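In response to a reviewer's request, we include the raw inputs and outputs for one of the modeled complexes. The two entities were modeled together in a single run.
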Amino acid sequence: MHQNGKRCGGGRDELGFFHDSVAFMIRFENVGMRYGMGPEVLRDVSFHLAPGSFHFLTGPSGAGKTSLLKLMFLASRPSRGLITMFGRDIATLPHHELPAIRRRIGVVFQEFRLLDHLTTYENVALPLKIQGRTEDSYRDDVHELLHWVGLGERMKARPPTLSGGEKQRAAIARAVVGQPDLLLADEPTGNVDPEMGQRLLRLFVELNRLGTSVLIATHDHALVEAAGAPELMLHNGGLSVRG
Amino acid sequence: MAEKPENLDPMERRGLSGLLASLLVETRSVMPAAGATGVSLVLVIAAMCFLASLTFGAALSVGRAADSWTSELAGALTVEIKPSPDMDKDSQLDAVMSVLAKTPGIKTARPLDQEDMRALLEPWLGQGNVTDDLPLPTLIAVEIDMQSPPDMAGLAFQIAASAPGALLDTHRQWQAQLLQAARTVAWLAYGVLAIVAATTIAIVTFATRAGLSANREVVEVLHLIGAKDRFIAREVQRHFLHLGLRGGLIGLALSALTFLAAGFSGQSESLFLVPVWGLPAELYPWLLLVPLAASLVAVLTARVTVFRTLEQML
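The model returned the following structure tokens for the whole complex.
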């Protein structure tokens, strides 16, 4: 991870992820973003994430965390600057190639964005279904994952009947079911008690240990301190790094 | 472990109304099934297809009736024999029938008897006023072969020459007027059909857009988790095809029932030139075009709208 020429993140050379010769997973160079004709919510943001890294994204409300995540999961375009993902310049990437990039990214949305008309099982299996896989090929994996996140008994329930914590875990399960290269989570512990927060953190660490890069946007300082991972700090649209 | 009743999903305990809703709007796609927008879209399409089917059926029926009237009239002639002091009634009839029998292109020739004449005149003269001593002309109903019709001018001359007071009526004047009236009514019916069809298309289009707008969140989530545009469009199209077909078939069934009910209630009645004895059986299959067209409109609208929506996204 670099910001203003400083290298940060890393520590997994034994896995072969952090060599400079390896393409960066995400690279932002002088990225700015504004909504419509409004002021810039992100200014001259430059950093890159290496494969297998683990970072937190922190900052006060309105600092631009969600906007930065939207750029990273390809929901928004930057107003200026260069974004490279998995070695491809997003600005020049043909529209039909974007889904392939998105499938390498798992996203836990702040408001979960589960589909209310589908069961928990169907919601979690959705990323596999859209890949054209048959249900027989993924049913057991989805069941196992749902049991692992503690939703084994709630597979047939629909989101409106789930508690906040259950929705959070369903959203996380949907984000990780496709074994993404990068996991982006927006306030993933915002709706759970500290104990569940720690449990979810262990889930993210475990995923990272298996090779997924993780970036968690959070207000939860206890979570950041518990993990001891590098911190990207947004303040007034600018980015700095700690750790 | 059994779930507690309060934990049961509302969709799983919705009972008969839920079953009905699922039959109406369940589409087995990743799009919402028994949503409020789904039900209202089905009802809107059903109502518009009902109106469109009624109009279409009426237009078909009027068109068919107009064809039938003109062809029947074109294939029929009448010979009128007025009483004459120079020849008795039977001899007049024999002379004219002899001419008709010899003329090629005549399929049948039938003199109307007293009962037929009474039935023709009683509506005008009043029941019981057509007495046997009333001096009436003799009428002969003639059916001609439309494939090789007789020479009308020659036939008229021969009939007039065969007996005094004999006259051939080719119905030409009536035929022209009725044909004009029938054509006007048929065009009027097709005009109304065009307006109803255009309105149906507009309403189905707007309802489909509204339905898709309500499902924008689903489209966005599918897009963001990496679904290809084609996958999303296919799911959306299938969803609206099912909704369109269901609404269309409900409207079709209601209109078919309306035609059947009209058939039972008003056997041989007619309203101006519009027959109200229902739709001829062979025309019912044509009504299937209405739900098919409505579904096609819904699917195309959904396809265009979803691709436009996806283009606006990154």
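As requested, we also summarize the result in words. The first strand of chain A starts at residue 2 and ends at 3. The first helix of chain A runs from residue 65 to 72.
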